[in-house]
Design brief:
single chain, 476 residues, mainly alpha, 18 helices, 0% strand, disordered N terminus
Length: 476
């Protein structure tokens, strides 16, 4: 279906000058005030790292070890480089279209109104369900620590607590998030110190280069197959762009925060996986032969390295960290719904900003209800995590693809920059599109099917909206 031939959205004719509060002239939401600029550079990076989670590799450490034949650190190095293309495209577009809505706004600016709706619609699938997965992780971890309380109760409690924090205001949520992020980083430092101590006193279980070269014969195809899974650990850094209308310094500062968040996450992932791979009691081949052991591989390594106390400390950190990763995701989802409602692509009630807290309260509550239902439903099923985790990524990846296309559209096709660059505005986004396509191809059949169905529904909604607008214009 072709995009409706409507005029492009209002957007700055040229990138804002460095140092200005880009986007400060964004239209206020009807029926309420505008979003408040209270977030610093640190706050933005905190939101991004919270959503990603500093110890994101913990849950998939065993899977990646088995898939990459032991070269897990190389996997994360390659994945960081791969995701850098997407981060760079975000940095390009957030400067020229500094409004809430992230890829919805960027695709509208670079490709037109119809493509913008599709990008927002596909990102919505990701932004609403990734928090549900994070809440479920929190519930599972808490249930492991307190088995007398069912995991769905812990899951629901995590949703309620973090939603209340988000409703109190973006600054309050950012402060709470900073405290939790600091706790996660302390736990990570404890793990690193304990791991280094064991390596110094007892030595490594395998060669020092094994996390980079693999165990046995090196296989680039195995590394690339693992990269297609590892890039999903980074989903969330893009959420920073959703807060551009609430950031002091606007698009320029948000662009720097996006890139900084990716670099920090990549370093943290590489360090922890390198140490864990050296200390893991099971080899990559053994993990491949025993898939049931893969999920607990990192915790088993922590236990073997320093004892049960470290294993429980890492588990508790994951429980709290996952809930606050969902807090950041829920906040980003609320901003996406708010931006689409403000542009009359979703019910207008969600475009209102609360006068007291300065947040899009109704959009946040709408996102919270969806994630609560999805998370509790999954928590009450034995296969709930598999169902949720298999479908959350296709939406984000499709939106990433439209993001890269919007860079080409804005800078090269529409020539909105004085000197478009072949390297920055064509080659980098094309390489990013290639990465996205490769990951989508490697996704499960369930994920591909759900993504296709969600896209089809979105195209129907777009067609209905276009028909109504045409009818309204003809009748006026």
């Amino acid at each position: 279906m072709s995009a409706p031939s409507e005029p492009p959205p209002p957007s700055p004719p040229s990138p804002p000058s460095p140092g200005t509060a880009a986007g400060s002239g964004a239209s206020a939401a009807p029926g309420g005030g505008g979003l408040r600029r209270t977030l610093s550079f640190r706050d933005l990076v905190v939101y991004g790292l919270l959503f990603i989670a500093p110890m994101a590799p913990v849950g998939i450490f065993g899977t990646l070890q088995a898939k990459s034949h032991g070269a897990i650190t190389l996997v994360y190095v390659v994945a960081t480089v791969a995701m850098a293309f997407t981060a760079y495209s975000y940095a390009q577009m957030v400067r020229v279209a500094p409004q809430a809505g992230s890829v919805f706004t960027y695709a509208r600016a670079g490709l037109g109104d119809g493509a913008g709706f599709v990008a927002g619609w596909m990102a919505m699938l990701d932004y609403l369900l990734i928090p549900a997965v994070a809440y479920l992780f929190s519930g599972i971890a808490m249930h492991a620590l307190v088995p007398s309380v069912h995991q769905w109760v812990w899951t629901a409690l995590a949703v309620v607590v973090t939603t209340l924090l988000n409703l109190l205001g973006v600054r309050t949520a950012a402060v709470a998030g900073f405290v939790v992020l600091a706790m996660e980083l302390v736990v990570l430092v404890v793990f690193v110190v304990a791991a280094v101590w064991v390596l110094v006193t007892d030595g490594a279980q395998r060669g020092w280069s094994a996390p980079l070269t693999g165990e046995g014969a090196f296989s680039m195809s195995a590394v690339l197959a693992a990269v297609s899974v590892a890039v999903l650990s980074y989903l969330g850094f893009d959420a920073i762009a959703s807060f551009v209308e609430e950031a002091t310094g606007g698009g320029v500062r948000v662009a720097r925060a996006v890139l900084a968040c990716l670099v920090v996450a990549g370093v943290l992932f590489a360090v922890q996986t390198y140490l864990a791979a050296l200390l893991a009691p099971m080899s990559a081949a053994e993990l491949a032969d025993k898939p049931a052991e893969q999920g607990d591989a990192f915790y088993t390594t922590a236990n073997a390295a320093a004892g049960e106390w470290l294993q429980k400390l890492v588990a508790a950190s994951k429980a709290v960290g996952a809930a606050f990763a969902a807090l950041a995701g829920q906040a980003a989802a609320g901003r996406l719904l708010f931006a689409m409602a403000r542009d009359r692509r979703l019910p207008g009630a969600m475009s209102k900003v609360d006068a007291g807290s300065g947040v899009p309260r109704r959009a946040l509550l709408g996102a919270a209800v969806v994630t609560l239902v999805a998370a509790v439903w999954a928590a009450r099923r034995d296969d709930g995590l598999d169902h949720l985790s298999s479908i959350v990524n296709v939406g984000a990846l499709t939106a990433f693809g439209l993001l890269h296309a919007s860079v080409i559209g804005w800078f090269w096709v529409r020539k909105r920059a004085e000197r478009p660059s072949v390297l920055k505005h064509v080659l980098v986004p094309v390489l990013g599109l290639g990465v996205v396509a490769a990951v989508v191809v490697e996704a499960s059949a369930t994920a591909q099917t759900v993504g296709a169905v969600w896209l089809a529904v979105g195209l129907v909604v777009l067609g209905v909206q276009y028909g109504r607008r045409r009818g309204g214009a003809a009748g006026s």
